[in-house]
């Protein structure tokens, strides 16, 4: 289990390949970053964006599409 500095993980995948990965301690910050990625990459065909809480495994908090 990661420490609290890396609790929330955000991953952008394009064409089935991980393209961008970020970690945050704050859920609020991670959700803001998620919304930003959806705005920037959400209309690209094959892009998926997933926000997970890693405190107890891999609980998905948000995903696009």
UniProtKB/TrEMBL annotation:
Domain of life of the source: Bacteria
The name this protein goes by in its record: Uncharacterized protein
Protein species of origin: Streptomyces himalayensis subsp. himalayensis
């Amino acid at each position: 289990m990661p420490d609290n500095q890396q609790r929330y993980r955000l991953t952008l995948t394009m064409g089935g390949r991980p393209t961008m990965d970020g970690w945050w301690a704050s859920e609020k910050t991670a959700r803001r970053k998620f919304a930003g990625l959806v705005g920037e990459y959400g209309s690209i065909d094959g892009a998926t964006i997933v926000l997970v809480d890693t405190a107890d495994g891999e609980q998905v908090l948000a995903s696009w599409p």
